Structure formats: structure tokens, C-alpha cells
Amino acid sequence: MTVKDIMAELKRLGDPQIKSILQKHGVREPLFGVRVGDMKPIQKKIKKDYQLAKELYATGNADAMYLAGLIADDAKMSIEDLQTWVRQALSQTICEYTVAWVAAGSPHGFKLSLEWIDAKEEHIAAAGWAALASLVSLKPDTQLDLPALRSLLSRVAASIHTAKHRVRYAMNNFVICVGAYVLPLHKEAIATAKKIGTVTVDMEGTACKVPDAAEYIAKIEARGALGKKKKTVKC
Questions:
Q1: Confidence check: pLDDT of 12 > 90
Q2: pTM of model > 0.90
Q3: How far apart are CA 50 and CA 75, in angstroms?
Q4: pLDDT for 48
Q5: Can you give the pLDDT at residue 129?
Q6: Radius of gyration, alpha carbons of the chain
Q7: With DSSP H G I counted as helix, E B as strand and the rest as coil, what are the percentages for the chain, rounded to 5?
Q8: Are 112 and 225 part of one and the same domain?
Q9: Could you tell me if 114 and 203 lie in one domain?
Q10: What are the contacts of 97-100 at 24+ separation with CB within 8 A?
Q11: Are residues 26 and 55 in the same domain?
Q12: Residue 87 placed within a domain
């Protein structure tokens, strides 16, 4: 399939109601409003295609950018590719999901995440924390920099309540993921979650809520799922 073919198909699949919902959740124009489930047949047909993913992302259409993340060959993504993607990821779903997922699956995820979380731009900093959350969910504990993650937990505890809204949300999710997926830091993540307490984020009038990190980790523990890494974070 070519970019032209895919864009025509996405336009056909667009739904005004879905578009409205996505916009309320921070997705910016241009977009058609395509359900992720309706993208799956396209993803299944393409599987992975590094060049096609880059071309789709470059259209600037939020639906095409999301699909680009699903078909991206993460291992082939260069630092320059990822820097371009994060700069252009102005929609919430793109910076906190698409870019974070692809960065986490690339060889450059940890290095870039540490750079991004220091960015002044809210969407880039949020992408950095989201990528860290995805990374700890995927990689074996033996491949993680535990001292660095421990330091990041301390950073969250000290700064989450003064961070920008979407950064705050991504930080909270990072604590959850460390507590759920990194067994050596489970207790420290719980302590961090209890220390930060309730995290308030402007959800822009949607029904979405910020999960209580300590309670969320406890639910995962109750299911007996602590430390069970994900095969993929893309969905």
C-alpha cells in the first residue's frame, strides 16, 4: 500500500463522532477520526515498514501518525527520526503513545527519554516520561539502569505537583509502571506513590481520571501480575 492508498482508506474510515471524542482528548487537526480497531486490518496487511511509517507520520494527519507508530520498525528508527517525531507530536495520543512506544522499542529509547524529560515543551517532556514507562514495561530488569530509575522516582516525588499537566500524568504512570514491572524497585515505587498521593491533572472536561498510583500497583499485585513484562506496548 502507498501513502496515497492509506490516506484514502483512513478518510473513508473516518467518523465525525470519533473525531469529536479524539479532539476532546487532545488530538489536533488534521484528522479523520478513525477508530484504532479500524486501523488494525491495515496494520496487519503492512506489518512493519520503516519507510512507509516515516512517510505516513510526515503527513501531519493524526490518524496517519498513529498508524505510523503501529507499523514502525522500531529497531530501525534513528535518533534523528525520533527527534523529528517527538517535535511534531503535538497531539496527546501521538506524544504519549505513538512516540513513546516507538522510542521504547528503539535502541535509543532510554538516552532520548532522559533528554526529553528535561524539555520545556510540555508534549516533549510528557513523551519522555511516557517512553520511560513503556521501556520498563518491556525490558528485562537485568537490562535496566536501576540506579537511574531509582533517581527518577525521587525526581517524580520532588517535582510532580509542580510539573505541567500532561507531564504530571505521564510521571504518575511512570511510577505505576516501575512498581508493576520492575521487581527490584517495587517497594520504592510504592513508597513514591504514597508520598505523592493524589495527583490532579486538568482532563479538559473529559471523564478520564488520574489513577491513584499506589492503589493501581496494589491491584496489579493482587492479580499476581507483578514483574510480568509486556510483549508489546502498542495497541
A1: yes
A2: yes
A3: 9
A4: 97
A5: 98
A6: 17
A7: 70, 0, 30
A8: yes
A9: yes
A10: 97/66, 97/69, 97/130, 98/65, 98/66, 98/68, 98/69, 99/69, 99/127, 99/130, 99/131, 100/127, 100/130, 100/131, 100/133, 100/134, 100/233
A11: yes
A12: no
